[in-house]
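fyi for ur records
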Amino acid sequence: MDRQTYHHGDLKQALIEVGLKLLREEGIVTLTLRSVARASGVSHSAPYAHFPDKQALLAAISTRGFFTLQERLVDTAKQFSSHPADLVAETAWTYTRFAIEEPALFKLMFSGILEDEHSYPEFMAAVRQTFHHLVEVVETCQAAGVLPAGEPEELAVAVWSQAHGFVSLSLERQLPGQLLEQYQLKQLLTRTLQFTTR
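which gave:
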C-alpha cells in the first residue's frame, strides 16, 4: 500500500484489513504491529497511533469478524422470517459457513486470547449484539411453537453450544468420516440440532 493514498481516518481501517489478510495467510503467530505496518507500507511506528499493542489490533480484527457474522445472521433471519421452523437450522448453518470460510478469523474471535476483553468496549458490544440476535431467533421460534417454552437466554446458549461444538469438530476434522459419507455437512448439522430443539 502507498502511504500517500491514506486520508484522515483511513489508516486504522486499512491496518485492520491488512491484519485480517495476514491472519488468513500466515496465522496469528506472525501477526504483529510491525508486520502489519510493513505490509501496509507505513512506518513501524504508524500503527501505534491507533493500536497501543498487538492485543488492541486483535480486538479490532475480532470486532470486524463479529460485525460481519452479525450481518450474515441478520440476512438469514430476514430470509426465513416467514419460516420459523427452518430458522434455527439456517441460523446455525450461516454460523457454520462463516467458520468454514473464515477459519483463522473464527478461531481468533472465540480464542479468549484477549487478556482483558472489557478494555475493548466495541468488541464487547459486538459480542453482545451477536448473542442478542440469537436470543431473538429463539424467541421468534418459541412464539411459533418451534422451540419449547423457557428462558430464551438459556435455550440460546444450548443452541449456540450445539452449533459451536459442531463447528469446532468440523474445523478440526474430527467429525466421523462415515457420517460425512452419509450426510452433507448441513444435513448432519440439522440432525445434530434436533437433539436440542425437539
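Residues 135 and 153 are 6 Å apart (CA to CA). thats all i got for now
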